[in-house]
Every structure is written in structure tokens, then in C-alpha cells.
Design goal:
single chain, alpha/beta, five-stranded parallel sheet, two-stranded antiparallel sheet, globular
């Protein structure tokens, strides 16, 4: 079926804008930091928040950050795409790297772990919060879409990690003065719609798959859900609507402190990033 570009663009815009409005993701005078990897989801988030600012009578600030994990032949292409889109939209872009912050590229430590996604996730979350806190941002906007949220929910369910159930929301509470809450404007938008939007509008994106992603549990869950969707159209949306409407998880009170090494907000000191860095140093020195 031939897609009507204007109709589809309106559908995507209305979906994202409705999420922003209904859940009050962006407020007057907010300072929003957008995490931009160069992939389709973060690029759509960048464009939608920029468009939302232009079309609504709300005054807020937008900046962007790109994390360089240090994956040769992969990350540099994503950085170029992030730079291209931010330049077009005239949005300031900060680039931070694992190497500068921790002393190691992901390539240099990948062999130490059964899945490189574990250290990558810890370091990425740490840097996103650190740079956002440094620039006194009120919120970090990420490109998590409907498919990502379902995958994360099922992974958390499988691991029986009840504390993380409270993160299934388009906006998280601010639980520490130095912990910047996340917002997810694409929360109700399917991944395939993100891809279609980028193609229809000829938006430059980094569409390569991370070479380490196949080692993750998320990759297996994604393949499983895609097979279910192929055989049962609409099942992803049904799963999403089910947990959104019927699963009410109590908020977990977490008392945060500051890491005795890096002074960043953490539930336990030292923080996960500092503990990981010390662990890597020990493994490399063995």
C-alpha cells in the first residue's frame, strides 16, 4: 500500500505530541537534554522535540549529547549523523566518550564480559546523567519506543527485578538533586513507524546494528516478539496496552547518596560505574 507522506507524518506527530502533552513530559522553562546516538529513534526524538517547540507556545531549551563508546567502524558513523541532524536543526551537541571518562574504549574491554551490553549500559547511563547534570538540565529525552518498552518489561519480568518495574513510564520522578529524570516521547510509537518516518522524509540516520548487540538478552527478546507479531498482527500493541492499563506497581523508595569516588548520585557507594572501572583494572592487571 502506498503511504501518503503528509497523512503518515501527521500520525507520527500526533502520537508523539500526545505523549508529551498527556504525560506533561515538557514544561515551561525546562532545559531538555536529548540523547542522540544517530540511530532512527534518537533522530526522530530530536526532530519531534524541535518541532514541538516550534509549534507550541512553550518556552524551553534544547541541547543534545552523543556518547562515543569507542566501537571501531560503527560509532563514528553514528556521531557523523548526530552532528548532521543537530547542525540542520541548530541544536548544540555535546560529545562525550568512554575513553576520556573511564580510560577505556568498549572495544578494549569487550572480551572481559560475556555480553558487552552490560558495561556499555552502565557507562552510557552514567555519562548521560553526568553531562545532563553538568548543564543543569531538567530532563533527559531518550529514543525509547513502544517496542523497546515491551522488551524491557519482559526482560525485567524474566529477571524478577521488581524494583525496575517502576521505570515503565514515559517520565520518571526526580529522586535526587543530581539525578536527572528521563522522558520518552516515542513511548507509544512502534519501532516500524519510526523507521518509516525516517525513510519517507529522507532523514539521515545511522542504520547499522551494533556489532555487540547479538550477545544481549534484548536481542533474543526482540526476535521473539517480532516472530509473535508476524504471526499475530497487533500483539505488541496489545501487550503494551495491557501492562500500561492493568499493571500498577508501587513506587519504590530509594535513598540516594553520592559516590565517594566520583561524587555522582548513587544508591550505593561506590557507584556502579566506579565499581566497574575498578573491576576492569583488576582484570586487565591479572
Amino acid at each position: 500500500m502506498k503511504l501518503d507522506k503528509e497523512t503518515f507524518n501527521n500520525y507520527v506527530k500526533e502520537n508523539v505530541f500526545r505523549t508529551i502533552t498527556d504525560y506533561k513530559l515538557i514544561c515551561e522553562d525546562d532545559n531538555i537534554m536529548i540523547g542522540v546516538s544517530g540511530g532512527k529513534d534518537s533522530i526522530l526524538t530530536l526532530h519531534m522535540i524541535n518541532q514541538y517547540q516550534k509549534e507550541n507556545d512553550i518556552d524551553f531549551k534544547i541541547t543534545a549529547v552523543c556518547v562515543d563508546e569507542g566501537i571501531a567502524g560503527y560509532r563514528e558513523n553514528g556521531i557523523k549523523t548526530a552532528i548532521t541532524n543537530c547542525k540542520e536543526l541548530k541544536i548544540p551537541l555535546n560529545i562525550v566518550s568512554f575513553k576520556e571518562e573511564f580510560g577505556y574504549n568498549l572495544d578494549e574491554i569487550s572480551s572481559l564480559f560475556s555480553s558487552s551490553c552490560m558495561p556499555c549500559g552502565i557507562y552510557r547511563r552514567y555519562l548521560l546523567n553526568k553531562i545532563s547534570d553538568k548543564y543543569h538540565c531538567d530532563k533527559i529525552a531518550t529514543g525509547h519506543n513502544l517496542d523497546d518498552e515491551i522488551q524491557s518489561f519482559l526482560m525485567t519480568f524474566a529477571r524478577n527485578d521488581r524494583q525496575k518495574f517502576t521505570k515503565f513510564s514515559p517520565i520518571l520522578d526526580k529522586i535526587h538533586e543530581n539525578m536527572v529524570p528521563r522522558i520518552k516521547p516515542l513511548w507509544q510509537l512502534a519501532e516500524k513507524d519510526v523507521a518509516i518516518w525516517c525513510i519517507l522524509n529522507d532523514i539521515p540516520i545511522h542504520d547499522e546494528e551494533c556489532p555487540y548487540s547479538k550477545t544481549s538478552l534484548r536481542s533474543d527478546v526482540k526476535l521473539f516478539l517480532n516472530k509473535l507479531e508476524e504471526d499475530n498482527k497487533g500483539i505488541k500493541r496489545n501487550i503494551f496496552e495491557s501492562f500500561k492499563k492493568t499493571l500498577q506497581f508501587p513506587k519504590v523508595d530509594v535513598e540516594l547518596t553520592n559516590c565517594k569516588i566520583c561524587n555522582q548520585a548513587t544508591a550505593t557507594s561506590p557507584c556502579q560505574a566506579c565499581k566497574l572501572t575498578n573491576q576492569i583494572r583488576d582484570m586487565l592487571n591479572e
